[in-house]
Design a protein that fits this description.
about 900 residues; alpha+beta; Jelly Rolls; 5 domains; 10-stranded mixed sheet; about 30% strand; globular; disordered N terminus
Length: about 900
């Protein structure tokens, strides 16, 4: 008996300390895709209570989480043995598997935290623990930085461009290197090298911020880059947005942070014996200039390969001719970890055509409009100069036309690289500290005649992962979808921009209009989180916001348009990005922290609008930008945004438990609604303002139309579209209103007709003219790579495939599947990686039936609308839908049967 007791105790200890996985009751649920603050295994977290999320997978219908347990340990070995010395959440009864706030021991700078999670499923069975994940804390305190900001010179007021500075430092490392980390920020941009090798694959790093408020730094694991004995670190800097040396329309040359390029770098080494060493940027570093003669974010880069310094970033290089680096004050902004994916070269494109419109002038056609640069491969004599000029429009002579873009950059050349050969075999070169929007590259000065292989396109953007996919039987719509995706990634370079060539500015209106389509298609939540912090940094005390974020001071007024009465910003259609994007993050990602962190700023902005709109009518702003012909009174759209902002602030206040403020802003919204209808609605004609598509759809979109008038306003809107032969006639605001208000009213068929047009004005007209990205204006006279008409992609998901989040269950905790099989569509399908897992909806018409296949991820539920001519004929998995496992009939609507479903895969069939 004693022997049996001893064996039992040994078994119990084994179960307790070896992961327990074999002791769990069987569950088909697996836990994976662990993220911390939206990122997988991130390095450089400076949130002291980071949020943890995971995704469940299961082949069983209706599977869900009923409880979870999170273990966090200070080492991978501790975690392996379930020694959760940082945090053991214990068993927490909850269905929440996103944004679980770390609640363990206080976290310290540099600390790596290993974690895993197990859940209990719907039957109460505990799953095996997930594979381990980790996050590593950055430098949380100012005192953690031993390094100093360095520059080539202490002088900062010169307007003149200077060659890029190269910095180096040699140091010795003792035996037994256990781990090493590099923390670095280089402004405007930097490249970091250790022992002759580039560290990391970031480009145009760090992401642009308002440098006098916030500066981002990156963190790298450089353990394998160091060696025992002599080492060398090298850094090269570019001007970026930090030192704008050319006069330009947006006054970045007057930015309050403006100074010569500078960096701060700290390499921390831990040895196996427990000792440490820090190599920090200080006066012991040396500096010189090299082959980068000139760099400018808008103009381009000049490089003379004859000035290269082989080995400059390696040990034992002779730097006796180099100067001492200068310690400088550096930017005033707080150093913060870069908690978003970096910009990277994500793809290489080969040109599809090469022409010679003039002798010695060669034009490469990349076949795709995108953001990035060209890599040149060339052989020739030393001193030969090759010029690469970038653009996305070809003039009548077959050469690149830059006139439409370059007029606002008032000095020097535009989107142009110049490379001088060193004359040593095949030379391969690409710029480092600039980027362009282009489809064509015009090459002159090339030794001999180039071939297609002499050029490659490098596509760059913030390297977030894809989160969605849409396809349908209409090939035109598929091309529009792809053009939208290319415009979105072209215009996300650490912050969302309007265009990648002419401006590269963070226009707030463009970005808020594209946010929903961005969240459907890309895992961009962490990037938007960063950008909202930029808004916080830019907002004035009175609540006012600029039209571009970040800004050096330009954009708080638009006196260049109408004179002194316009000294109140670009208006709520632009500024409301600060209200709308956090709200979209809540709806699409279930993120309440972003609401809490920015609530005061959102509220202050609405108060600013109230101060400017005493009668409830907002006159600020630009109005519906770039319509085809119909002009809409800007007071209509601005007041609509004002109303929508007040509603959102009221809802956010309610979510945060601020009931009195919730009532205040709800009452404000009602006042605005009454003023809107009194000012703009004509009861005799049932039209708003001039009766434009934008005016009527604005009123419908925001719910400003009284119930009794809604149908007539809708009919007026559709009649207007019919007068335009089924075409839209709206600008960037009206398009968003039209897509959503018509679909909400059950008229997705009208939208489909507009979306399928190939004549002016339409997306299809752009495609028929060869567009591979979205354009700024319907006639194509302006930019050929803008994202502001991007909500069409959002509509593909919401309407044609029918995937959307239920507002009362944010983050896709409950999912609407409401497809619209309109027009001549035969099939459509989409998938979206929601915070809880992959959602799919695909339908096809086949032999008089509609087949709808749906995937609802574990731990969520769905409301499925099955289009049908007869609700009694709907089946799921071959049996009557009301008898299928996990399917519960809710109601029947005209042409639709509605079902509640648990998680799982479903196949509905219905007669049509």
């Amino acid at each position: 008996m004693n022997r049996l007791n001893r064996l039992f105790r040994i078994f119990a200890v084994f179960v307790l300390f070896t992961g327990c996985n074999n002791a769990f009751a069987e569950s088909d649920v697996t836990v994976g895709q662990l993220t911390c603050e939206y990122l997988a295994n991130p390095m450089g977290i400076d949130v002291t209570n980071p949020r943890l999320s995971w995704i469940l997978e299961s082949s069983q219908r209706g599977q869900r989480q009923t409880a979870y347990q999170v273990l966090v340990a200070s080492s991978e070995d501790n975690l392996k043995h379930n020694k959760s010395d940082l945090w053991d959440s214990g068993k927490v009864t909850s269905e929440q598997s996103i944004h679980i706030v770390y609640a363990g021991k206080p976290l310290k700078s540099r600390q790596r935290c290993w974690w895993k999670v197990s859940v209990w499923d719907k039957d109460g069975s505990q799953t095996a623990f997930s594979e381990p994940g980790f996050w590593e804390m950055g430098l949380l305190e100012k005192s953690d930085w031993r390094a100093k900001w360095l520059s080539i010179s202490g002088e900062s007021n010169s307007q003149e461009a200077q060659p890029s500075p190269f910095f180096r430092r040699e140091f010795a490392a003792a035996n037994g290197i256990k781990k090493a980390r590099a923390y670095i920020s280089g402004l405007g941009y930097y490249e970091l090298y250790l022992n002759g090798q580039r560290v990391g694959d970031h480009v145009l790093d760090p992401a642009f911020t308002r440098y006098d408020k916030r500066v981002l730094y990156a963190m790298y694991d450089v353990t394998n880059r160091l060696k025992e004995g002599k080492n060398a670190v090298g850094i090269v800097l570019g001007n970026g947005w930090y030192f704008r040396h050319n006069v330009e329309e947006w006054d970045f040359h007057k930015s309050p942070w403006r100074a010569r390029p500078t960096f701060i770098c700290q390499i921390e080494i831990e040895f196996v014996d427990g000792s440490t060493d820090i190599i920090a940027s200080d006066a012991a570093w040396k500096v010189s200039t090299g082959p980068i003669i000139f760099d400018s974010i808008r103009n381009g880069e000049i490089y003379d390969a004859r000035l290269e310094m082989p080995g400059w970033n390696a040990a034992d290089y002779n730097d006796s001719g180099w100067k001492e680096a200068q310690v400088v004050d550096g930017p005033k902004g707080k150093l913060c970890a870069q908690m978003l994916p970096p910009i990277k070269v994500v793809k290489e494109i080969a040109p599809v055509n090469l022409t010679e419109p003039k002798p010695g002038v060669f034009v490469f056609d990349m076949g795709q409009n995108f953001a990035g640069w060209a890599q040149l491969k060339v052989s020739g004599p030393a001193g030969a100069k090759v010029t690469l000029k970038y653009g996305d429009v070809i003039d009548a002579n077959g050469t690149i036309d830059q006139k439409r873009y370059s007029q606002l950059t008032r000095q020097g050349f535009f989107q142009t690289d110049m490379y001088t050969l060193k004359g040593e075999g095949t030379e391969i070169w690409e710029p480092r500290f600039t980027y362009y929007g282009f489809q064509y590259v015009e090459v002159t000065g090339f030794p001999g005649k180039p071939v297609l292989d002499n050029l490659r396109g490098k596509v760059i953007h913030t390297s977030f992962e894809s989160a969605g996919r849409f396809e349908c039987s209409n090939g035109l719509l598929n091309k529009i979808q792809q053009a939208t995706l290319w415009s979105y990634i072209s215009n996300f370079q650490g912050y969302p921009t309007d265009c990648p060539h002419r401006e590269k500015n963070g226009w707030t209106g463009d970005a808020q209009l594209a946010c929903e389509m961005g969240l459907y298609n890309f895992d961009s939540a962490s990037a938007y989180t960063k950008w909202m912090n930029d808004f916080k940094d830019e907002q004035r005390e009175n609540g006012m916001l600029p039209g571009i974020v970040p800004t050096g001071g330009w954009g708080y007024d638009i006196t260049w348009m109408k004179g002194p009465q316009w000294r109140s910003g670009f208006g709520p259609a632009w500024d409301s990005a600060y209200v709308l994007i956090p709200w979209y993050m809540y709806q699409y990602c279930g993120d309440t922290r972003i609401l809490a962190e920015h609530y005061n700023g959102m509220k202050r902005y609405v108060d600013f609008l109230t101060d400017k709109s005493p009668d409830g009518i907002c006159w600020l702003g630009l109005g519906d930008w770039c319509p085809a012909t119909e002009q809409t009174d800007k007071k209509v759209t601005s007041t609509g945004f004002y109303y929508g902002d007040a509603i959102i602030v009221s809802k956010v206040a309610r979510l945060l438990g601020k009931d009195e403020e919730a009532r205040k802003y709800a009452d404000l919204a009602e006042k605005i609604k009454q003023a809107f209808n009194s000012q703009f609605f004509d009861a005799n004609t049932s039209r708003y303002a001039q009766g434009t598509q934008t005016a009527n759809s604005c009123a419908l979109y925001y719910g400003l139309v009284d119930t009794g008038s809604r149908q007539k306003v809708l009919e007026n809107l559709i009649a207007n579209i019919e007068r335009h032969n089924g075409h839209l006639d709206a600008g960037i605001l009206g398009v968003k209103y039209l897509l959503n208000s018509l679909t909400e009213a059950g008229r997705a068929d009208v939208v489909y007709r507009m979306a399928s047009q190939t004549t002016y004005p339409s997306w299809g007209h752009w495609i028929s003219r060869g567009a591979t990205t979205l354009w700024e204006s319907w006639d194509g006279r302006d930019s050929r790579n803008h994202i502001m008409f991007g909500p069409i992609s959002e509509w593909f998901y919401k309407a044609l495939a029918g995937i959307s989040a239920v507002p009362e269950y944010p983050g896709f905790k409950q999912i609407f599947i409401h497809p619209q099989p309109v027009g001549d569509l035969v099939w459509a399908k989409a998938e979206h990686k929601s915070p809880y897992g992959l959602v799919k909806s695909g339908w096809r018409k086949e032999a008089g039936k509609l087949i709808l296949e749906v995937v609802i991820p574990p731990n969520t539920t769905g409301i499925v609308y099955v289009p049908t001519g007869n609700a009694d004929t709907v089946t799921e998995g071959g049996v009557a839908a009301d008898k299928a496992e996990g399917v519960k009939p809710l109601r029947t609507e005209p042409g639709t049967a509605v079902f509640n479903v648990g998680s799982g895969k479903y196949k509905f069939e219905s007669s049509i």
